[in-house]
Here is the input.
Amino acid sequence: MGIGLTTLLLLAALAPLGFLAYRLGRGKALSAMAAGISMHSRPQQYGWYSVVWMGLPALGVAIAAGLLSLFGVISPARELVLIVSLAIALLGLAQGLRAIRPEVRARNALDGVIRWLLLSAALISIVTTVAIVLSILFEAMRFFREVSVWEFVTGTVWSPGDTFLEAAGRGDEVGENTSFFGSVPLFAGTFMVTAIAMATALPIGLLSAIFMSEYASHRQRGFAKPILEILAGIPTVVYGFFAAITVTPIIVDIAAFFGLDASYSNILSPGIVMGIMIIPFISSLSDDVINSIPQSLRQGAYALGTTKSETIQKVILPAALPGVISAFLLGVSRALGETMIVVMAAGVRPNLTWNPLEDMTTVTVSIVYSLTGDLAFDSPQTLSAFALGLVLFIVTLSLNLVSTYLVRRFKQKYD
Amino acid sequence: METELTNDTATEARQTMTQGVDNDNGPSQKERPEVRMRARDLNLWYGSTQALHDINLDMYSREVTALIGPSGCGKSTFLRCLNRMNDLIPEVRLEGRVELDDEDIYDHSVDVVQLRTHVGMVFQKPNPFPKSIYENIAYAPRLHGTGTSRAELDALVESSLKRAGLWNEVADRLDTPGTELSGGQQQRLCIARAIAVNPEVILMDEPASALDPLATATVEELIHELKDNYTIVIVTHNLQQAARVAGYTAFFHMGKIVEFSDTDTLFTNPTEQRTEDYITGRFG
Amino acid sequence: MSTTQSRLTGSANDPRIKARYRKEKRFKAYTIAALFTAFAIIVAFFTDIISQGYTAFWRAEVNVTLDYNERAERIGRFALAEDMRDIASRGAVRSIPLEIKNNPELAGTTRQTWVPAYSRIDQYLKGREELPPELARQVDAMVEAGTIRSSFNWAFFTSGDSKLPELAGIFSAAVGSVLVLFVTLVFAFPIGVMSAIYLEEFAPDNKLTQAIEVNINNLAAVPSIIFGLLGLAVFIGTFGVPRSSALVGGLTLGLMTLPIIIISTRAALRAVPDPIRLGAFAMGCSRWQVVRDHVLPLSLPGILTGTIIGLAQAMGETAPLIIVGMIAYIPDAPSSIFESATVLPAQVFTWASEPRKAFVEKTAAGIIVLLAILLTLNATAVFLRRKFERRW
Here is the structure.
């Protein structure tokens, strides 16, 4: 019996039992009330009370058994778990009905159960984070058992490709030590594309935000803001297509005009397009920050006889700096983790260069290419994706933490 | 000055009151009334600041007790202790007893939710639910199972609205949202809503302070009528209002009860200098 | 008199003041230029995509005589006259042997019908590709004679992926998207709303609550590809959910959408004013009854708006789905969440990696459809917000 089928069977059996429990519980409370006994809670609440008594212990046992077998502590037969759970459901039903007495606070008990249900839903986010960390860490550890951390961090050659032959059982044809996992070129590419993206997004985003918050009329602002937001709603795969099909040829043509030789998977094109994608993040966050700077600061500056641009440059921007930095960091974090644009428009050749017209590859591209195709799940190439993912996760998480810290400090200052 | 005031003052105040009642020669000619709610040595802290100091107060059955005093004196805080609305604020700590018919409402066995069906509340700003007038009133009885059939609810809605003096104004539009009524009507709807639960005590937190004078008069009239059936505790900023509606008045200052007596005595012949200063408008 | 004037206005001749005003103008011009650059990019972007893609909604069809002869019983192409074999789509006659097998009475008959043209012919007629001169002349003549026509490409919406560009459509990807979003919604909506209710209405202000809040905010900023790694390691690796299935894709996107739904639901709950809660508490509602009867109904429009925005974001997501294998070649629409499926953006990605030029048009058309759906979803969200926005 599969785990899915067992779950389905269990739920299928519990559903009618739940209905029965509700009817019986409510019935008991109703007949008590008809006999003139004053009950603490409403009859429906006693009905639900019996349902909880019936279902909760049974589900608890089933989930506990599932977790135990998942982590390999013990693995009871699924049929056994099913039968035990149902038996407990019946016992719970009997106990729940027996427990219905006038002084029992069914409503309070139900409120408690609901509270716990809501809390466990909220805990799912923590579980997700823990799962991300554990699963990625676990696979990354397996990778580092085969490849030294030192090589991964400092190596300048990334060529996992030959392990493909090993996986295909032809490892002897390539000999020893032909796959290299030096991640420096990948991070260089990621750094390059991020730098280009931010160089595009920061001036456009910040200046647009300044226009919208300081110069624009109410109507202009109400018109410009949503239009910029459109950029944030475009799927990254669309940006990738735009970069690969439209921007890259233009860049190659322009480069050729200046007598330069640009690759058709140059890193400049995905960088610029990624910058376009990030414009709305920078503009809307900066706009918020600039708007939350108190009017008194501006008035103080005007009273000294400064022009508008002087006020902006000398007073408002310095005051808004933490917020702008925070927006910048969030943008960087976006750019580092962006995948589709680089997968579609950047190269796959790890390349250590300063020339943005050459092709480079990035961390996210390597992750995608190590995990697509029919690779064995435990080959070093597959596992390398998790090592790269781990670094990516740590870096973006730190950026985000710093950014929220800056924003919070900024808000405290001006609220 | 204030720091000297402790338990003794409150006890004194109570004695004053008792005397006042014993030698009652005012117009009301009341029997010594039955106590419905009673606070005993009540202390309350918000975090580390103490908001109420040794409050002792009796609230009489079928009487209006007014709580007066300058802003921040703790009268609203005290009012919220009476149906444990302060439970909703984290960091509130409380010592002492509050009794409803000799039962401590802070006893751990007390079901707060049920307590609030016995001790209803009307707020400063009218807060009708954004539902129809009918639903505003029928909601709680349906929830508590005191009215189940449509006919029962219809009757309850009508009687509650009549008691709140709103029936004639809204009888033909029970389906319109309660939020579309005027301020005074909204407040009377909130009173009707509270009545529909059939409480014994109704707490009112400055119920007329957000209303215009005309609406205030209507609400005051209503309070006066409700007194025959309910125990009412009302917080008010408006001394004239206290004088008009309340049989008994407690003067709060700095989280303490400075003086408590029947309203006439408190306003015409206060025993404490501070009470006199306050009612004559020298501070507050 | 003149001195008073110069004190207030005459300084226009002061070179320092002039320089300052020039700087002022220049700065303002920069900000306007930045905004217009952004606008220009948006216009260029949409013009580019639409001009590349709109032609895919029409396709060339060619009138042929199908001859159900003996050779066609084995290879469908032989049903076509010889000069049509380079003009009609190979895919259109692929099923002729099966047709004959199922209806033996067809054998030996002939039939005139319109079939899709070979993609290169189609591209030639749209002016995107060159043909050998002889073939081009033949096609031109057929257009002249009316045996090649252009008609609306319904097949683009009703058929799945194909290796032949003239037959490829978005249907199976669209079905995949619907299934994935269904799973995402069923998973993320209840859990997200419940978490938000807990945090906003129930949670005490303690370390655990703060930990959950920090967590949710950070989850919202984790790169989507990391969620793909999680889905691969946990859902596929540990729980054995079938790879490439709508189930694993939906769950992965569900985890990603969860923080969005939680954050927007919390904002919607917070917008319900406290007097409503106090009023309900004062009449003896338990906390849950307050939430169920008063707070939730009032915040529902806000919650739905947030959910739609979250789903729109999930719908455009590709990277995590590639990691969990949802870029398989799926010609037929999946019929359950356990079957291999692909989604619209993944289909766009697969087509974009096709070297054949005819697929560029398909890719852009797929993008147009995707953007149209996303725009509609977001517009719905804005509409909902406007319609039910309540001022307190």
User: Anything to note?
Assistant: The radius of gyration of chain B is 19 Å.
